[in-house]
Amino acid sequence: MPDEKLARAIRSRTRRDILHILGNKEKISVHEIAAILNITESSASKNLKMLYDFGFVSFESRA
After folding, report:
1. Hey, how many other C-beta atoms are within 10 angstroms of the C-beta on 44?
2. What pLDDT, in 10s, does the model give residues 2-46?
3. Collapsed DSSP state (helix, strand, coil) of residue 50
4. I need a labelling partner for 8 at 20 to 30 A (CA). Which of 18, 38, 44, 46 fits?
């Protein structure tokens, strides 16, 4: 992974916090992440999308 890509992914404190949470839980919802970090679901989703784009996380849809 190029250093710049890694730096962009972890530059945000919120994204680092999300990665920390995901390291401790196998599956967690956007709602739960937002509640733990005291941020909006929109902010959690935006940061998760960036982590997804960088290849750090994957998504599983609940039907």
Report:
1. 22
2. 678 778 778 899 999 999 999 998 789 999 999 999 999 999 999
3. helix
4. 38
